[in-house]
Design brief:
Structural class: mainly alpha
Distance between the termini: 46 Å
Oligomer: single chain
Helix content: 40-55%
Number of strands: 2
Largest sheet: 2 strands, antiparallel
Length: about 130
């Protein structure tokens, strides 16, 4: 058996699972199945996530179990975060790029004061 991957090796397009089969009784189900965000992770990354969850995200416990340094564990965590399509350390912002640009344009045109612009930007990040 081979692990499932979600990117076409020919064109790079998204692959979908269309057949599931029982190893025990040979029942087969066909259709279009969602593989989920973890389908593209390597076996090593999946094992890391399993250990991370088992240890409730406590890196000190992971250090003991894996016999790895804190920076190594953080680097592996960042690799998984990137593989899932995120950037480590980025905080969710509740303003989209157009809203942020609008605030900055209002500031530049003198429609709002610097303190008001900063307050609006900070409030959106605090939510």
């Amino acid at each position: 058996m081979y692990p499932i991957f979600n990117e076409c090796p020919i064109c790079g397009g998204e692959l979908i699972a269309t057949r599931l089969e029982c190893r025990h009784c040979d029942t087969a189900i066909t259709g279009r199945f969602f593989t989920g965000p973890f389908a593209g992770l390597t076996n090593e990354q999946l094992t890391f996530i399993e250990i991370f969850v088992k240890n409730e995200g406590k890196i000190t416990r992971m250090q003991e179990e894996l016999d790895l340094s804190y920076p190594t564990i953080r680097n592996r965590l960042h690799e998984v975060i990137r593989a899932l399509g995120y950037e480590p350390g980025e905080e969710d912002t509740y303003l989209n790029e157009d809203e942020r640009r609008h605030i900055l344009e209002d500031l530049e045109q003198g429609k709002i004061k610097y303190q008001d612009a900063m307050r609006m930007l900070k409030e959106s990040e605090a939510k």
